[in-house]
Amino acid sequence: MVRTIDKTETCGFLLDGKWHSEGERLDVRSPGTGQAVGTAFRATAAHAEAAIVAAVRAFETTRRLGGYERQGILRGIARSLEEQREELARLVALEAGKPIRAARHEVERAAATFRIAAEEAVRIGGEYLPLDWQSSAAGRWGIVRRFPLGPMVAITPFNFPLNLVVHKLAPAIAAGCTVVLKPAPQTPLTALRLARIIAEAGWPAGALSVLPLANEDAERIVSDPRLKLLSFTGSTAVGWRLKQKAGKKRVVLELGGNAGCIVCGDANLDYAAERCVAGGYAYAGQACISVQRILVEESVFEPFVASLVARVQKLKVGDVLDESTDVGPLINEEAARRTAEWIAEAVSGGAKLLCGGARTGATVAPAVLTGTRPEMKVNCLELFGPVVTVERFRDFGEALASLNNSDFGLQAGLFTRDFTRIMRAFETLEVGGVMVGEVPTFRAEHMPYGGVKDSGVGREGVRYAIEEMTEPKLLAVNPAGL
């Protein structure tokens, strides 16, 4: 039984410390059911211009805030998130079509990210640098200090409507940068609710504007030289196009992937299968580091596949507000149709569907494919649905080469106890991170997170994002001249 939504949310957008409820209405409906979740309002190009002006002005305040002031604001935001955990989780579940248990976890992660940022806000240091390495510089010394880069633009996707927004705003606040944020059009309500929490915590007026913008207006912001950094999470094609429009500003792109996982013969097969299910089907596979490709050593292929399929078949598909639901809908029917078409295309090309794959509206039953080829869409492109492919390998080097045979390079997983293989994978795999004894879907809020090749440029993770959002500056001193 699908539960009805007993209350809808109406959110104006935040601009220069004020809330605006005007212009085109944006009705947000829950994926899978089509029930109304709430209403937002589309901001215009004029609003975007006002937001940039406000961000430039507010930066003169935020750049001078003491570490203790930024830390206090960040801690206050974390507390509010914890206090509003259930209300926020319900909003995330309904707006993004995310099972409620996963939505709660997202709120918990968001609060943790702000707590980590609060600690990092007072750790933005530098170094003392002796300069007297040659006789001509005798007695000279320097200090290197990091300064906030300036106002920035952030663009976020639908799949983690809270925590991926937080991974831009928390380090920006810690660094003292101001932000103009464009949330995903499918999930603006969560970002707007977070904006209210941030404003109430004392972040200065104008230092954060959250604007649901049309794509063309967002692109104008990206090209504006008054904004010094673009932080974008989303599709590969859009990300690289925006980078071309960004001009001279610094760019951080967190883009797509078709994450692979290698399971070796010495692995704990049941544990590896359990983690692959968690990594492949959480939020219906709609994460850029969802497990998409699994390579299993031939000697253990059959028992691993049996364990994997048995677990996938036990996943409960259903109402996102049901505590027992494991897999909900995709973000819309178009995404579900594409997923089903890719499955059918693989099967028509000789692949075998071991379970799942049926589509009902925006929902696709969790699927496992084998007998696929590298050039099939289910392998070489980003699937972004509840599907994994599983294939066997004989030679470990060939398995590494197979994972590298991709335009993407975000994260990879490896299950083995062989330290030689671990180090070989670490040195060989063309990815931003190698997860050992774990699936590529693992992410901790403070670790460096990002990819290579088409998966992006730059790193997130609070401290690493702060480094992207700050500029080192040298003070060189010649005591003889004082």
How would you sum up this structure, described in words?
The protein is an alpha/beta fold and 482 residues long. It has two domains: 265 residues, Aldehyde Dehydrogenase, Chain A, domain 1, CATH 3.40.605.10; 185 residues, Aldehyde Dehydrogenase, Chain A, domain 2 (3-Layer(aba) Sandwich), CATH 3.40.309. 38% of the residues lie in helices and 22% in strands. The chain contains 15 helices and 25 strands. The strands form seven sheets. It has a seven-stranded mixed β-sheet with strand order 15-18-19-14-13-21-22, with helices on both faces. Helix 5 links the parallel strand 8 and strand 9. Helix 9 packs across helix 10. The longest helix has 21 residues. The model has no long low-confidence stretch (mean pLDDT 97).
